[in-house]
Amino acid sequence: MNFASDTTAPAHPLVIEAMNRVNTGIAPSYGSDAVTARLRALLANVLETEDFDFWITASGTASNALALSCFCPPTGAVLCHEEAHIERDERGAVEFFSGGGKLRLLPGFGAKIDPQALTAALESNKPDFVHETPMHVLSLTNLTECGMVYRPEEISAYAERAKAAGLWVHVDGARFANAILGTGSMPAAMSWQAGVDVLNLGLTKTGAAGCEIILLFGAAREKFPELKARAKRSGHMPPKMRFLAAQAEAMLTGSLWTKLAGDANRMARRLADGFEAKGFKQAYPCEGNEVFVMLPSEISAKLRAAGAVFYDWPGGSCRLICSWETAETDVDALLAVL
Prior knowledge:
CATH superfamily of the largest domain: Type I PLP-dependent aspartate aminotransferase-like (Major domain)
Shape: globular
Number of domains: 2
Largest sheet: 7 strands, mixed
Strand content: 5-15%
CATH class of the largest domain: Alpha Beta
Structural class: alpha/beta
Strand order of the largest sheet: 1-7-6-5-4-2-3
Distance between the termini: 12 Å
Number of helices: 13
Oligomer: single chain
């Protein structure tokens, strides 16, 4: 009954097999290997475009901070939700990697930026006013930190407003597969087709051992040389890139990544329905693989005493996350205790 996080799950066996297959012989370093070269064709097929460049890192924090540092100068700011992962959980990584760029925080239910708050922030932005920190990037998180999704039409609307104000658009897609499964959309519709310039495509939470892909689309590709330079300088240019690329290849081949995300989403839905059937309200709608439920303290204490693992969440709810390995028996065992 461990619902602490999808990062607590093991890597999928096919990922380990793929890493073992490339664990032989000599291969060029730093992404010049054949596995990384093959990955480009897979990504082009998944994303329905050739107009991109990519870089692989081992963590979501590195991906977010590296990507945003290329688009936000030390004197600039990134617009994001006040509960975004880059604000709450990355220990100032964006500020550190950018050399002093700041985060401009916006409100909104379910960790989704309120449209009116975004409009107000963009309209008040005065890049030429020396006393103000100008905004350079809009960062969205999909799924959000509260498990909600930005649908394609929402991303397009936000991106249109941001670009009209001269901002780049970044998406933290640590749970991108869960988001596309939650909306029934295609990856392209949730990224470059909606106006996204930079996507951090997360595979670690979905079933990889440690693999995140920074994707630069269209005009954002001009930043690729800088991205590689910053990756090298910060220690995020893996010498044996083939092992990261092998993880991505395994996940993207045969749509394994979406199958695993779909399994996690279904278990979360089963869990959410079980809570609702027993009269416990959800703090946020279950739109992916996360459940936020309002539990009295005595109930949560009894669940933990029975062996259930989950987090208390700001605002009074309890967060339970399902992974690719979460089984119906895990969900049903918790509901039986409840």
